[in-house]
Amino acid sequence: MLDDNNKEYYECLVGNIIGNHYWGEEKKLVSGTKYFSAGTKVYCAFEYGGMGNERVIVYGRKRKSFRMLEISIRTAYIKNLRLQKVYAPKIIKFIKKHPWYFNLLNSDCYNESMIDFVNNNHIELKEDI
Length: 129
Hints:
By secondary structure, the protein is of the alpha+beta class. It has one domain (10-120). Helix content is 20%, strand content 34%. The chain contains 3 helices and 7 strands. The protein has helices spanning 89-97, 100-103, 108-120, and strands at 10-17, 20-23, 28-31, 41-45, 55-61, 68-74, 78-86. The strands form 2 sheets. The chain has a 5-stranded antiparallel beta sheet with strand order 6-5-4-1-7. It has a two-stranded antiparallel ribbon with strand order 2-3. A hairpin with a 4-residue loop joins strand 2 and strand 3. The termini are far apart. Mean pLDDT is 80; it is low at 125-129.
């Protein structure tokens, strides 16, 4: 798609990694995940829909690094999911690599239902502490 200034952009589902939450059998209080610090902006590709969208492929800046990382994580680790325009070439390359974007690009009801699902259904982790 092109915006008013003829710059290429795509719309992408973007979220943030959750903050403090309990993890493991000992219920240890941790911030973020192993690969992403709390609040990291991640770009989401919901490719595993057949599994109830329990996991999602995300692309974001790795903890304590400047490198970008593409990895599959649980949707419970993502909060504040929203639809956002993306202009960065690396992110557009990530979007083009995942075919579900092209099938559901103009499906507003799917995007809204996915946003509601992730923002309202944190099964085990619930809200930040």
